[in-house]
Please model this.
Amino acid sequence: MSEERVICASGDLLDGGKGLRFMVDWHGRPVPAFVIRHQGVAHAFLNQCGHVPVELDWQEGDFFDADGVYLICSTHGALYSPKDGRCVSGRCSGKGLTSLPVEERDNQICLTEHRLANT
Model:
């Protein structure tokens, strides 16, 4: 049986709007992560640029570019697909973001920690 952790209420995320930061246990250490909404679906990733290990958001929760289309690294300008974290442009050398397993139900967005432990 999977263990789930509630990250936020579904209504806390607007499509293409600010994301929400949270921490995950990643290979035995606490690592920052974030969840956003894109085209009506919640997606979560480790908060780490594929180019160098810096957090994407300079202003907390600002993960989307000005048009709300791509996720952007505020340090290097690398662009990532909000659907799957794939690098689409910039200095990410083809390295995408690490996605995290989230599910949305009962008006909550949950991290499936059992699946996280097996990634």
